[in-house]
């Protein structure tokens, strides 16, 4: 048998993600969740729809907070006023859709849940187009690679510390009947008591 003369591959240092990488990855992840929801709705799979609605709501909430805290401030005066206003309006529309998703999910109003997720999908697709075509191309002109890498770290830190409540001001109190904490606790309980037969073994 001939000896294996294949030379071992050299390890290549993987560059740390920068802010553009983090945001684009978030966009693709959220769009994938929307696609999964669309398929579940077409199949009439209520259980999967319920799970995905919660996943989408959380994903969008953390993403919008991180973008607000890290992307727009990093651009400063480079962000045209109309672009800033458009992005803010789009984010507020999405925050409102997140609240509706959680409300209809809690109330088990599946037809309304499907409608609001479809609306949020369209809103988010517009959000992605605006951010990736109008705003992200400005970043390399306003920050160095080292700064963009540091902003990506901050971006992930903000997501870890962000509130899970939709940031829609007074609308939140009205739509959740003054029980914002209750809405989140019912939508995402702190613990689930499993039957003994399903308890994990450690």
Walkthrough of the structure:
The protein is mostly helical and 202 residues long. Helices cover 71% and strands 0% of the residues. It contains 8 helices and no strands. Helix 3 packs antiparallel against helix 4. It is globular and about 60 Å long. The relative contact order is 0.15. The C terminus is likely disordered.
Identify the overall geometry: globular
Q: What helical percentage do the residues reach? A: over 70%
Average residue pLDDT:
81
SS field, number of helical segments: 8
**Helix/strand structural class:** mainly alpha
Main sheet?
Answer: none
Give me the Rg, rounded: 21 Å
Q: Could you tell me the strand content as a percent range?
A: under 5%
Distance between the termini: 47 Å
Element string (H = helix, E = strand): HHHHHHHH
* Number of DSSP-assigned strands: 0
In terms of quaternary structure, the protein is single chain
Low-confidence segments: 170-180, 189-202
